[in-house]
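Entry 14. Structure prediction run on the chain below.
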Amino acid sequence: MDNKIILVIVAILIAAAAVAAFALSQNTEDTDKNFVTYYGNGGALGETTSVKSLETTVKDCDFQNGSKAFLSWNTKADGTGKTYEVGDNVDLGTKLYAQWSANVLKVENPSYLLPLAGLKLYYTDGSHNMEPAPLAIPLSSSGTVKLFLGKWDEVSWDQSASRFTGKTTTGFSLTQKVSVTGGDATFSVEDGYGLITIAYTGAVTVDFSNS
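Output returned:
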C-alpha cells in the first residue's frame, strides 16, 4: 500500500479518536450536571471513591477514611470552597469533597450503649452543650471532652476496676467497664450519670463492655 495512503488512514483514525474522546468528555460533563457527585477525597466505600445522587439534599458521608472522622462537604478538595453540611440544599451538578479530621474521639462497642437499657451516650466539650454522640466525634488537636453514659437510678464507680455499676432507668442492673486510650481520663458520677472526662491530644478511643 502506498505510504501516502497509509499516512492518510492513520491521520483519519487519530482524528476520529480525538472526536470520540471529546464527545465522551462532553457527554460525561453533561451527565454530571444531572447529579450531585460526592467524592471520598481520601475516603472510600469498598473500592468506590465517588457516588452520584439525584437528591438535592446533602447526604451523610458513607465513605470511610481510616481513623479519621468526617467533618463536612466542600466544593473543593482542599476545603477552600463552599462548605455544605448534611441536610443542606445543593444544586444538581455540584461536586462535593469529603473533609476529614485527623483528631477524633471514637467510641467502641456501641452495642452496649442501648437506650432501652438506659445507656445512651452523650458528650460535651468547650463548644457544645450535652448532645447525643455519634460513634466518631471530630476534635480539635487537643483539649477536654466529657462523655455522659445514660441516666441510671443508682450508679457507683469502682476506680480499681474501671467500671460503673448500677441500675438503669428501665430497671436493669448492669456493670459497664470502661477503658480509654490516647487520653488521660477521670471518671465520676454526676446527677446519676456515669461521667468520663478526657484530656486528650490527637485521637482518643473509648471502649465499653459489660463485665
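Confidence is low (pLDDT under 50) at residues 6-13, 18-28.
Filed with the rest of this week's runs.
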